[in-house]
Amino acid sequence: MNSKNILGILLAGGKSRRMGGGDKCLLNLGHKTILQHVIDRAAPQVDRLLLNANGDPDRFQKYNLAISSDSIDDFAGPLAGVLTGLDWAIEHMPSCKWVVTFPTDTPFFPKNLVSRLFDSVSNGRGTLACAASGFRNHPAFGIWPVHLRDALKIALVDEGVRKVDEWTNRYNLNTVAFESSGIDPFFNVNRLEDLQLAESHLKND
């Protein structure tokens, strides 16, 4: 797979309620932040990265990333981040046909995530795709065609759709299963005890 013209969207637009608010992606995991772990895994898999984050962008200045807040208001969830990425791709990467989303609280996702998602939709074999592990889907780890931007905007703005599954079920969605090795590759840090578990895995990895 050629990563050229695939935009990666780092989803950091949530409120992190279960961590007491703030940016959980900026918490330290080992010798670097969770966000840096995510960047290190995502960057080699795509052509460019965009950070989807709301609020003051200066708190992410040291990462030297393009940053865009949600295209729509009211913290509409991961789909708002997808729409933001599609909007940004159309404006800044006119030849881009696909974007891939990466939640920024998941530091161990597979290094072949994008290639496998792309393979599952190439040659018209699917409209979009998401990752899965342990018989559980992870719809926020997905590959999204840019041509669905207008349809997604209508769903979010006019229909009030918020759940990822509610929208993806309208299309031919492929699910790509990944195996676990020691820890679920899509393990995400929601609570302080999750951060401790991630620290343990990092030391034993």
Describe the 3D structure.
This protein is an alpha/beta fold. It has one domain (6-204): Spore Coat Polysaccharide Biosynthesis Protein SpsA, Chain A. It is 29% helix and 22% strand. It has six helices and nine strands, in the order E-E-E-H-E-E-H-E-H-E-E-H-H-E-H. A seven-stranded mixed beta sheet has the order 5-4-1-6-8-7-9, with helices on both faces. It is globular, with a radius of gyration of 16 Å.
Q: Would you identify the CATH architecture? A: Alpha-Beta Complex
Tell me the radius of gyration.
16 Å
Strand order of the largest sheet: 5-4-1-6-8-7-9
Low-confidence stretches: none
Question: Layout of helices and strands, plus pairs?
Answer:
Blueprint: E1 6-11, E2 28-29, E3 32-33, H1 34-42, E4 48-52, E5 66-68, H2 78-92, E6 98-103, H3 113-121, E7 128-133, E8 136-145, H4 149-157, H5 164-168, E9 173-177, H6 192-204
Parallel strand pairs: 1-4, 1-6, 4-5, 7-9
Antiparallel strand pairs: 2-3, 6-8, 7-8
Helix pairs in contact: 2-4
